[in-house]
């Protein structure tokens, strides 16, 4: 949680950040998954972006997110809502 708070301060992020230390939210959204890296299997969060509309409903899901260009995709989706 401290790393989230530090990151938020450094970047002056005005939004509330979630530190899902028990991965409860990740499990509910189906993004707490088994991953394999360098032949070792472990549990972690699948890089996913959820766009939530004003009514609190999931409007769009971006799975297997690649950082390059992703912010533009999300911004276009937000503008279309």
Can I get a quick summary?
By secondary structure, this protein is α+β, with helices and mostly antiparallel strands.
What does this structure look like?
The protein has 81 residues and is of the alpha+beta class. The chain folds into two domains: 1-46, no CATH class; 51-81, no CATH class. It contains three helices and four strands, in the order ααββββα. It has helices at residues 2-11, 24-28, 70-80, and strands spanning 32-37, 40-45, 49-52, 58-62. The strands form two sheets. The protein has a two-stranded antiparallel ribbon with strand order 1-2. It has a two-stranded antiparallel ribbon with strand order 3-4. Strand 3 (49-52) and strand 4 form a beta hairpin. The longest helix is centred in the C-terminal third of the chain and has 11 residues, at 70-80. The protein is globular and about 40 Å long. The model has no long low-confidence stretch (mean pLDDT 94).
DSSP strand count: 4
How many independent structural domains? 2
Arrangement of strands in the largest sheet: 1-2
User: What is the terminal separation in angstroms?
Assistant: 32 Å
Question: Top keywords for this entry?
Answer:
2 domains, 81 residues, two-stranded antiparallel ribbon
Question: What's the topology here?
Answer:
Blueprint: H1 2-11, H2 24-28, E1 32-37, E2 40-45, E3 49-52, E4 58-62, H3 70-80
